[in-house]
Batch of 2 targets.
Target 1
Amino acid sequence: MNFLEKVEKQIELIKKNNKEINAVLQINPRAIKEAKEIGNKIKSGKAGKLAGKTIIVKSNINVKGMIASCASKTLENYKAGYDATVIQKIKAEDGLILGMANMDEFACGSSGETSAFGATKNPSNLDLIPGGSSSGSAASVAAGFCDIALGSDTGGSIRNPASHCGVVGVKPSYGLVSRYGLIDLSMSLDQIGPIAKNVEDALLMLNVIKGKDEHDATACESDEIKIRSLKEIRIGAPKIDADERIWQIVKDKLKALKNANITEIKLPHVNLAVQTYYPLVYVEFFSGTRKFDGRRYGKKIEESCGEEVLRRILGGKEISKAEYHGKYYRKALMAKSLIKKEFENAFKEVDFIVMPTVPKLPHKIGEKISVEDMYFYDSLTIPANLAEIPALSLPAGKISGIPVGLQILAPKFHESEMFSLAKLLENR
Amino acid sequence: MNIEIIKQQAKEIIDKFVSELEKIKVEEEFVERKDDRRIEKVSTESVKTDEDFRKIVFENAPQKKGDCIVAEKGKWTR
């Protein structure tokens, strides 16, 4: 099957199955034309690193000419006028953008249910949530709609749905990938990263999108990420609360490593990660959404968004008031720096930290969950964002047919080591 | 959606979270800068955008008048 035939087949599959899964919001109308052009390059031997790969992009990343709605009524007709840096890089390496993915509205959610265009379903069990906020990205990969997807991860939004859908999801170190063109949730925590069927494709994509960018001062230059052989592996397993069955799957997977020394480590303040994260997100999200005032991008956000988005905006507005100076955001920043230091100290003793990606199994779509319970879905993924370190969710097994992911955390900018361990575990 | 209820709920959640952060004892860190003046790159060249960019920006704007996007102060609050 040549590349054009593959693209046609995937578009057919989306048209057939997306009515049920609801992972894709828009198919690229130029996909066939672009597939022909890339196909010709492949034949002539002049194609880039991503030639032959199809990509679906979370709808909060600008792809020129496509709708970057953030799965919100606020931006439902917003057509991106430019390519985000990651998209420029993908196109330069002949990756084909196949479409735009559904997501939690403005990335505010952990279940994929807050989209204004309907919840995404988990391809492994259509009654269950796929996780979020990059719900459509992970579900698209799991359903075979594309080879690789892009998501954004502020507190677990790539890893959480990757875990529930049984695919690989990567949150890079803060500063590895440019955020230019990402419609932000929380600028000090957001990172764009890949979701793929396997470690190799996730690595391929991350190597393409990473690197310095004059449009994002936080994006740094970095060496190529390579899989290397790991001789002695020191793994730390923190004492944290999670479903015992999920922990058991993670432990069983680690047993397969013959050259690993696994020890229990202490991260005393990591159980305050959720409490640290939300004051930061509320304030930064409130600040970031002031541009959606109805003048340039359609509707005023407060008049057109869903409940969770409104909660974060109103909460952020309230705690940003001058009378609360130093009480919320600043306190959360201090806790963030403490948690970051705890990880730095832990990585003096171990090379990796491994734990479940999500502490519990996904709930049924529409099931009533309290706001706080929903926030605690991300209790094991938020720490990596606060510590600015890379983290990868790898399929580890299944419980009653529901995929479960394990999470590998590594020191900042040690993506090569993280991918090396993931590769080692992938086939065991 | 009741805005007042959502606002109150958000405040209660954050208050609860921050009260748990109160237990943390940590020294605040600051970065001392030698010079507080930022050096801006001054360019005499105008920013170049492609042909489509202007067209798409105007497509996205809800109200237009000739070559302008309508955005008078207060207009969007009504």
Target 2
Amino acid sequence: MLVGPQSMEPDETLIARTLEGELAAFERLVERHREIVFRVASRIVGPDDAEDVSQDTFLRAFHRLDQYRGTASFRTWLLQITQNTALNAVAWARRRPTETAPDPPEMPDRDPIRQPATELERRERQQRLEFKLTALRPEYRSLLVLRDLEGLSYDEIAEVLEMPLGSVKGRLHRARGELIELLRNNTYDWELPA
Amino acid sequence: MNAGDWTADELTPAERRLTEHLELLRASPPIVAPGLVPRVLRGVRWQRAIRDPLVLVGAVAAAVAEGLSVLFKPPADHS
């Protein structure tokens, strides 16, 4: 990890240096943004394909870096590429003939005695929730990820998704509604009020 | 994680409960694969290495095609 003035360099400086051919500057950009890119990719496409999608995202960003105009933050621009790459991957995966998994994945049964019951229950709820999130249509899933998991502002989401602010709010409301319905239809009681 | 102010949304009771549940996921984010950065850089180096020759080949091919089209251009019809 870099410590000192180099680690403080703004994204714009690193972008300019990358465009001058300095690969180390791009490496720092990747280091700086890899976690959010990976998290968003993983939540949209699932953990198995998240690394491929993250790699594609950064490669696309590298080749399009001269098109970055700086009207939005670099992070927002990068998340726009992440989102598009992830949705393309989901669409591609849907065309592949694969078996569907109707049931939530089983919990790994590692040393259940050592884990307190509350921790086991928490993990089970987490896995069920992750599974229900993947059941959402991809466009809704990415909206929920950006807002409710990553905490982006509405303005940032509007830039990432290239849609008006009103549409973001409307779609987010529908996305939450769809997830609530999916959870209500679950055998597990999520205690969601009417 | 960038913890946004999702609580500032005007939420229905069910949506509020949902965001409480989603805290489970916010608290356990996917962990980035340690090999991601080297993998990206390998890809960049490799693609950068082949990009210039490919651009050159493309430019030469376009120039040849242009030249051939001029040489074998059908004569103008003056009738």
